[in-house]
């Protein structure tokens, strides 16, 4: 889904389109389980997609009721609430990344323009994502954390058989190309890894790299879970 948005949707509209896709997906899951409402942690005006205009357009894609209990709270109030209910540490240590980042996100999206952008989207991908999704009962999360977790090695240097794999989006790579002396750098955006990584030379060790290191680690873990042992995270 992220790949479709990055490749087919206008930069300024991506955030709203992404949220609309999320609501569509969540609504399908809600219908499957007989859930009457969706709950989000959105707060009014906190980011560009959370203006009144944009929230209205996001809600328009679903008949499912969307509850936003934090809608009028500021960030400090939300942090205090998290502290009171015991989730502050969890929120603080949770890796944060954004796969869809607009350079100039709209704060007042126009419905006709959003719908025109979505005409380019392959909705069969959304259906496939929902169909194959792993739905987890929140009461089982603690039990799952006790299960064996796949680890991935982080390196700051490279060997003779290593290749750096720049997984940033195409726009990021164009704006700030990665050049590292003494090692080859290959470009493969993160949203293409699941389908294209297997086409790379598997005799090489691939060092995944992104600016902050969060996306590269996440994608390396996904690849390891798929059986690729020749991946590491590059953090110079």
From TrEMBL:
<dbReference type="InterPro" id="IPR014729">
    <property type="entry name" value="Rossmann-like_a/b/a_fold"/>
</dbReference>
<keyword id="KW-0963">Cytoplasm</keyword>
<keyword id="KW-1015">Disulfide bond</keyword>
<keyword id="KW-0067">ATP-binding</keyword>
<feature type="disulfide bond" description="Redox-active">
    <location>
        <begin position="98"/>
        <end position="210"/>
    </location>
</feature>
<dbReference type="InterPro" id="IPR001763">
    <property type="entry name" value="Rhodanese-like_dom"/>
</dbReference>
<feature type="binding site">
    <location>
        <position position="19"/>
    </location>
    <ligand>
        <name>ATP</name>
    </ligand>
</feature>
<dbReference type="GO" id="GO:0005524">
    <property type="term" value="F:ATP binding"/>
</dbReference>
<feature type="binding site">
    <location>
        <position position="50"/>
    </location>
    <ligand>
        <name>ATP</name>
    </ligand>
</feature>
<dbReference type="InterPro" id="IPR050102">
    <property type="entry name" value="tRNA_sulfurtransferase_ThiI"/>
</dbReference>
<dbReference type="GO" id="GO:0052837">
    <property type="term" value="P:thiazole biosynthetic process"/>
</dbReference>
<feature type="active site" description="Cysteine persulfide intermediate">
    <location>
        <position position="210"/>
    </location>
</feature>
<dbReference type="InterPro" id="IPR020536">
    <property type="entry name" value="ThiI_AANH"/>
</dbReference>
<keyword id="KW-0676">Redox-active center</keyword>
<protein>
    <recommendedName>
        <fullName>tRNA sulfurtransferase</fullName>
        <ecNumber>2.8.1.4</ecNumber>
    </recommendedName>
</protein>
<keyword id="KW-0547">Nucleotide-binding</keyword>
<dbReference type="GO" id="GO:0009228">
    <property type="term" value="P:thiamine biosynthetic process"/>
</dbReference>
<dbReference type="Pfam" id="PF02568">
    <property type="entry name" value="ThiI"/>
</dbReference>
<dbReference type="GO" id="GO:0005829">
    <property type="term" value="C:cytosol"/>
</dbReference>
<dbReference type="GO" id="GO:0140741">
    <property type="term" value="F:tRNA-uracil-4 sulfurtransferase activity"/>
</dbReference>
<dbReference type="InterPro" id="IPR003720">
    <property type="entry name" value="tRNA_STrfase"/>
</dbReference>
<keyword id="KW-0808">Transferase</keyword>
<comment type="similarity">
    <text>Belongs to the ThiI family.</text>
</comment>
<dbReference type="GO" id="GO:0009229">
    <property type="term" value="P:thiamine diphosphate biosynthetic process"/>
</dbReference>
<comment type="pathway">
    <text>Cofactor biosynthesis; thiamine diphosphate biosynthesis.</text>
</comment>
<comment type="function">
    <text>Catalyzes the ATP-dependent transfer of a sulfur to tRNA to produce 4-thiouridine in position 8 of tRNAs, which functions as a near-UV photosensor. Also catalyzes the transfer of sulfur to the sulfur carrier protein ThiS, forming ThiS-thiocarboxylate. This is a step in the synthesis of thiazole, in the thiamine biosynthesis pathway. The sulfur is donated as persulfide by IscS.</text>
</comment>
<keyword id="KW-0784">Thiamine biosynthesis</keyword>
<dbReference type="InterPro" id="IPR026340">
    <property type="entry name" value="THII_Thiazole_biosynth_dom"/>
</dbReference>
<dbReference type="InterPro" id="IPR036873">
    <property type="entry name" value="Rhodanese-like_dom_sf"/>
</dbReference>
<feature type="binding site">
    <location>
        <position position="41"/>
    </location>
    <ligand>
        <name>ATP</name>
    </ligand>
</feature>
<dbReference type="GO" id="GO:0004810">
    <property type="term" value="F:CCA tRNA nucleotidyltransferase activity"/>
</dbReference>
<dbReference type="GO" id="GO:0002937">
    <property type="term" value="P:tRNA 4-thiouridine biosynthesis"/>
</dbReference>
<feature type="domain" description="Rhodanese">
    <location>
        <begin position="158"/>
        <end position="234"/>
    </location>
</feature>
């Amino acid at each position: 889904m992220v790949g479709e948005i990055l490749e087919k949707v206008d930069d300024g509209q991506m955030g709203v389109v992404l949220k609309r896709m999320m609501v569509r997906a969540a609504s399908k899951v809600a219908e499957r389980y007989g859930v009457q409402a969706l709950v989000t942690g959105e707060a009014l005006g906190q980011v560009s997609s959370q203006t009144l205009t944009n929230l209205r357009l996001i809600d328009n894609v679903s008949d499912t009721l969307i509850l936003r209990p934090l809608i009028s709270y500021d960030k400090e109030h939300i942090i205090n609430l998290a502290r009171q209910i015991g989730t502050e540490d969890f929120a603080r240590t949770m890796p944060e990344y954004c796969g869809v980042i607009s350079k100039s996100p709209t704060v007042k999206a126009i419905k006709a323009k959003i719908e025109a952008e979505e005409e380019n989207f392959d909705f069969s991908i959304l259906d496939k994502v929902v169909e194959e999704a792993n739905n987890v009962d929140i009461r089982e999360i603690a039990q799952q954390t006790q299960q064996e977790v796949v680890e991935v090695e982080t390196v700051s240097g490279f060997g003779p058989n290593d290749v750096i794999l720049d997984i940033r989006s195409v726009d990021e790579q164009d704006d700030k190309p990665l050049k590292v002396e003494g090692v080859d750098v290959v470009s493969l955006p993160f949203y293409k890894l699941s389908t294209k990584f297997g086409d790379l030379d598997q005799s090489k060790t691939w060092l995944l790299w992104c600016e902050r290191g969060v996306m590269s680690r996440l994608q390396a873990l996904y690849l390891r879970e798929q059986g690729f042992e020749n991946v590491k995270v590059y953090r110079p």
